Amino acid sequence: MPILNIEIKAGTKKQTHIREALGLLKATFKGIDYQTDTYFNVHSGRLKLREGNIENHLIHYQRENQSGPRSSEVLLYKTQAGSAIKEILTKALGILVVVNKKREIYFIDNVKFHIDEVDELGYFVEIEAIDKNGTIGRDALQEQCTYYMKLFDIAENELVPISYSDMLLKTNILNKSL
Fold it and tell me: Using CA of residue 50, residue 162, residue 151, residue 131, what is the dihedral sign?
């Protein structure tokens, strides 16, 4: 069953402010996850294998590129580190791009916060309001995202409309054309 997320991503240099705010709000700190997200060539949506020291999932999602809070439908499959799934997907689909990042993970109820340092791209914050079982609803998730954006003082011009994978693909294309 798909999980409904409303999420934002913003480029930021406010990591300290955001950490302090999360501390004051008694957010649960899950730890620092060193993640490798391998994106595969697919015809619909995005398919990535996340390999980390905390999170390991095969993730398929559909999401529009837009800079404000955006909706996505996510399918998750928990994987085991070191399984053959990466080799299988690589041979069957081919790799589109690989994203490496250091991710701090926090939770407040159903809202997940990431403070990311992404190789080749810099620093970001993500806010994901998550409805795992259809009981919260799109409007409430939207309100949660907007609330935390304001609390963290994230301006509209800091919002990023595309995924890290898209940013890296654009960077790679620009570098090849130079």
Answer: negative
Among the listed residues 117, 102, 10, 2, the one whose alpha carbon sits nearest the alpha carbon of residue 52: 102
Looking at residue 1, what DSSP letter applies?
-
- CB atoms near residue 66 (< 10 Å): 12
* Residue pLDDT, tens place only, 73-84: 889 999 987 889
pTM of the model as a whole: 0.90
What is the b/e burial string over 137-170, where b = at least 16 CB atoms within 10 angstroms of the residue's CB?
Answer: eeeebbebbbebbeebebeeebbbeebbbebbee
Q: Which domains does the chain have, with CATH numbers?
A: 3-177 (2.40.320.10)
CA atoms within 13 A on the CB side of 156: 2
The per-residue pLDDT for range 40-51, each reduced to its tens digit, is: 999 998 999 999
